[in-house]
């Protein structure tokens, strides 16, 4: 293989690749319809020219055929009048027009066949263009759907690894962290309140007991239930000391029970 052949093949391959990448289905379809419509216009013009030529040939054929018939009638008339030379001249003219008519008839038949073929091609091309327009709309819709889907997939792919999606994930983690901190603070606050109320409740018990104790000490000896003891008859010093000792023991027991 020669060097120039290889270079030519490489150049053509690169050009084909560039053209293939540059082809937009929607634009190519539109251009194809335009090209087909231009072909349709040219074919219609060709059919019109053929029909016009056919009509001219038909007129010429009719004229020559009419002239041939007229000269035939004149030849008969001259022969009936006994003018044989005039009849011969008329027959010569008849022959000329008849031969021309025969030639025109052959051309007319050919033109008729050609016009019929052109009309069939015209109808077929019109049908193909109509079908191509329908198919073009469907193909354009499919191409647009494919492009939209490709763009959507690319967008979704970028969101999966892009900075925007990463920012959303980071903010989600921060919100979860704030929620956890809020829950923990709420639990701590609740426990502190429980402890404060427990201290208050226990403090009230002590204060009440202390008040009762002060009342008992100010009123003198009291019973275990907190009531005043009944007045007793004067006794000896040993009996008074025993009563004090007993009261002191009762106070100690009450304090131990707190």
TrEMBL record:
The keyword Acetylation does not apply. Residues 221-258 are annotated as: Disordered. Keywords: Coiled coil. Pfam families: PspA_IM30 (PF04012). Residues 249-258 have a biased composition (Basic and acidic residues). Residues 101-188 form a coiled coil. Residues 234-243 have a biased composition (Polar residues). The keyword Coiled coil applies. Belongs to the PspA/Vipp/IM30 family. PANTHER family: MEMBRANE-ASSOCIATED PROTEIN VIPP1, CHLOROPLASTIC, PHAGE SHOCK PROTEIN A. This is PspA/IM30 family protein.
